[in-house]
């Protein structure tokens, strides 16, 4: 049962002399619409939980609209969030004429605010244990009950649009108790002014309709984020401080007992949406060893059929539990096609006043582009500008798509074909879909559903024809989530294959633009050449006796330890040959890593890969300086055929093979 506080020693009279104390006043907040605090619970202003969290994606929008802290009125984002502000002076007195200055940081009062007050409510109006919640009551106007309200201070001057509210303490011949709770109340132009009230029967209580209406500053000035693996720490918040000074004639005298110098924050900001991706690497066995003597009549477009059914990894491009969705007759990796992408929607429950895409004029759009990061091939069956066609991509049968059932590869992950989001061909192939976070959302081939406090993961399937050769390629991927309000673009979350959000050790190489989303590495012939020079006198000569052209790639390192991988050196034609000079190789390597060949004597080594059957490729290296021909050593570098990385690693000793 609440105690009734009537004794005079328990309060300070208006007009008494202020004491000197080391403890400042306190701010408390009653919060509504937050994940961390039940509605109406009172928390200290210096508590990290004492805040409504709004989304960074809406920062530029919120700076132009009224944010009503009344929990019975929807926020600009449509939720019943709110904050009631309580002020308590622990020591000293509040005297007639004293001035209290409540300053907002990160926000200002709305333009429709006409007056503000600090009001005391007798019933449960005294906090004796320091938690901001009333434990005792006090008869402030000495009328024999404790049900009334008392206006202790009112604003002076214009408050519309103000960042600081200047209050002057009034004297109504009444008393205000120590540890009494004052409510910060402000009236809009359509609300009645707040006055002292009396009630002999029912306690008068504070009405949240008088919670202030504010306009936020732009707490987050970015309108996009790019390759952010962790959310930005946004330090800007909406906070409150209080200063005080005495009445005349000592108006310059400060009253530290009534001040709150440490900002007490009640609105902060975090980003609601994040993107991620999981890349995949495929070693594609295009050249089975077990075929015996095979000629060009038994190869179509450079792909041998898998005559040996025991040969791993098999004949299925992607093997899903629901069946072979992308079958091919060529020998390929079972997981060669499927990396997945991720959209997270407030997964960690940090944003309280969240965006709902698909409601109140808010909408989202996911745009995904896939491209050859080396710039050699177009993501198309036909040539685009100077970029070569990649004929093996199966656009004709709609086999290049985002699955769109919200599950990554694995058991039960394959969705309804009608919901596939298809890629269109081009220099970069492109897929576009709207994004909804409504609980009633149902996925279609143009709509992705990402429920609140969850994430959407789905596979990007890159299907092949099965009849066209798979060239060595790294497919990069850019995913962009664009946030719109009333068709106006406000925010973009963007990520591509260069983001390092997780340590996918099998798939991310470490140097110089070598990241990818999907990587296809057809097995071929590999050779280790330990000694070349940066000139036009050392060379590598190769011949290709197979039925198709072979891509040439190199891993290059110099005597100073500088290194670069996946240097594209062109093609060696079918039934033809090619010569690569030392300075040509180093020039292409330097385009990816400018430090290559800049230390020591300019010597370098290469691990050469030719995309043609091993038995059909021959490589020699030479040095023609001083007009003399001298052969340089070339070592065979066989790769493991157990699904491992195609290129030999530095930990391998080529001389022992």
Mean pLDDT: 82
Q: Assign an overall shape.
A: elongated
Strand coverage percent: 35-45%
Which radius of gyration do the C-alpha atoms yield?
Answer: 36 Å
Number of strands: 44
Number of domains: 3
Q: Number of DSSP helices?
A: 2
The percent range for helix content is under 10%
Q: Largest sheet, described in full?
A: 11 strands, mixed
Strand order of the largest sheet: 4-3-7-15-10-12-13-8-18-19-5
What is the CA–CA distance across the termini? Answer: 88 Å
The structural class is mainly beta
List unreliable stretches of 5+ residues: 1-22, 288-294, 306-314, 319-323, 505-512, 639-657
Written account of the structure:
- This protein has 3 domains: 25-220 and 231-271, no CATH class; 296-518, no CATH class; 524-656, Hypothetical Protein Tm1070, Chain: A (Sandwich).
- Helix content is 2%, strand content 39%.
- The chain is built from 2 helices and 44 strands.
- An 11-stranded mixed beta sheet has the order 4-3-7-15-10-12-13-8-18-19-5, with no helix packed on it.
- The relative contact order is 0.11.
């Amino acid at each position: 049962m609440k105690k009734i506080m009537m004794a005079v020693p328990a309060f300070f009279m208006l007009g008494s002399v202020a004491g000197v104390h080391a403890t400042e006043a306190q701010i408390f907040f009653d919060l509504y619409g937050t994940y961390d605090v039940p509605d109406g619970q009172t928390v200290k202003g210096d508590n990290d939980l004492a805040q409504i969290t709004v989304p960074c994606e809406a920062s530029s929008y919120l700076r132009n609209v009224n944010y009503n802290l009344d929990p019975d009125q929807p926020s600009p984002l449509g939720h019943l969030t709110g904050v009631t502000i309580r002020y308590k002076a622990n020591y000293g007195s509040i005297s007639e004429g004293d001035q209290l200055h409540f300053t907002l940081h990160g926000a200002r009062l709305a333009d429709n605010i006409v007056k503000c007050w600090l009001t005391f409510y007798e019933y449960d109006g005294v906090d004796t244990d320091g938690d901001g919640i009333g434990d005792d009551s006090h008869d402030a106007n000495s009328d024999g009950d404790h049900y009334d309200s008392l206006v202790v201070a009112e604003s002076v001057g214009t408050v519309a649009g103000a960042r600081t509210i200047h209050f002057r303490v009034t004297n109504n011949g009444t008393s205000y108790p120590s540890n009494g709770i004052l409510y910060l109340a402000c009236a809009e132009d359509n609300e009645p002014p707040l006055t002292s009230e009396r009630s002999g029967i029912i306690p008068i209580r504070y009405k949240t309709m008088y919670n202030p209406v504010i306009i936020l500053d732009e707490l987050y000035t970015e309108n996009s984020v790019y390759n952010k693996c962790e959310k930005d720490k946004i330090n800007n918040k909406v906070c409150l401080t209080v200063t005080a000074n005495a009445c005349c004639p000592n108006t310059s005298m400060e009253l530290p007992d009534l001040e709150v110098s440490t900002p007490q924050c009640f609105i902060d900001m975090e980003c609601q949406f994040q993107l991620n991706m999981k890349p995949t690497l495929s070693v594609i066995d295009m050249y089975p060893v077990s075929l015996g003597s095979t000629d060009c009549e038994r190869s179509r477009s450079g792909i041998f059929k898998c005559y040996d059914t025991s040969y791993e990894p098999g004949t299925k491009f992607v093997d899903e539990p629901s069946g072979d969705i992308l079958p091919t007759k060529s020998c390929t990796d079972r997981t060669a096609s499927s990396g997945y992408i991720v959209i997270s929607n407030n997964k960690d429950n940090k944003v309280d006043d969240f965006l709902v895409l698909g409601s109140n004029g808010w909408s989202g759009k996911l745009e995904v582009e896939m491209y050859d990061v080396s710039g050699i091939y177009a993501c198309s069956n036909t040539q685009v500008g100077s970029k070569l066609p990649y004929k093996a991509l199966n656009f004709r049968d709609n086999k290049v798509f985002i699955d769109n059932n919200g599950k990554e590869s694995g058991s039960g992950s394959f969705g309804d074909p009608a919901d596939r989001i298809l890629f269109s061909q081009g220099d970069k192939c492109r897929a576009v879909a709207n994004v909804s976070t409504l609980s009633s959302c149902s996925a279609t081939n143009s709509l992705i559903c990402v429920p609140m406090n969850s994430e959407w993961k789905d596979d990007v399937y890159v299907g092949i024809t099965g009849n066209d050769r798979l060239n060595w390629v790294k497919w990069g991927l850019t995913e962009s989530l664009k946030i719109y309000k009333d068709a106006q673009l406000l925010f973009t979350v963007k990520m591509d294959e260069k983001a390092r959000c997780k340590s996918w050790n099998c798939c991310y190489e470490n140097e110089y633009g070598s990241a990818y989303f999907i990587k296809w590495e057809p097995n071929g012939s590999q050779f280790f050449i330990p000694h070349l020079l940066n000139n036009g006198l050392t060379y590598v000569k190769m011949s290709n006796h197979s039925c198709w052209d072979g891509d040439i790639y190199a891993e290059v390192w110099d005597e100073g330890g500088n290194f670069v991988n996946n240097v594209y050196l062109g093609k060696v034609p079918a039934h033809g040959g090619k010569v690569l000079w030392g300075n040509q190789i180093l020039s292409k390597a330097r385009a990816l890593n400018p430090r290559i060949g800049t230390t020591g004597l300019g010597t370098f080594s290469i691990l050469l890969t030719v995309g043609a059957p091993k038995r059909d490729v021959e490589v020699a290296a030479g040095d023609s300086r001083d007009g003399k021909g001298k052969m340089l050593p070339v070592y065979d570098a066989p790769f493991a055929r157990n699904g491992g990385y195609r290129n030999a690693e530095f930990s391998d000793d080529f001389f022992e093979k």
